[in-house]
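Record type: monomer structure entry
Structure origin: computed from sequence
Chain ID: A
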Amino acid sequence: SYHSLAGAGGCNCLSAQTVVLPSAWPQKAVFMDKLEHALATQRTFPSYYPGSVARAEQMAKVYGDKARRIKSTNRMPTATEDDDTMLVECGLVSASAFKAGMPIQVADNAVVASVGGVGGSGGVGGDGGGGGGG
């Protein structure tokens, strides 16, 4: 669920940090709109681990215009704009420009990495193309 994506400011070891989608999934735009809305409206907690905000900013610099902070409409009084979830579209896993280690480096942040799998237009959990990713 989207609640697990940024729970406790994304600083809970149980918080999911990556969403893997099929590269040509027809519902991707609708899904991403709903995900962004959910991230903006769920309760935003202060980042817990020292340096987590700086690591999220580092990832944003690496991905440039593919990274954006989702402005929270429901922050705890002690949370700031810096604690809002960062959404990063990492690109296709099969692409030469894909930075495989980067999402792992910021695993203790409120960062959601959207990674495109390889293959066709199958639903979530499969690539519909008979192999390779998803």
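Annotation 1: Residues 118-134 have pLDDT under 50 and may be disordered.
Annotation 2: The first strand starts at residue 18 and ends at 21.
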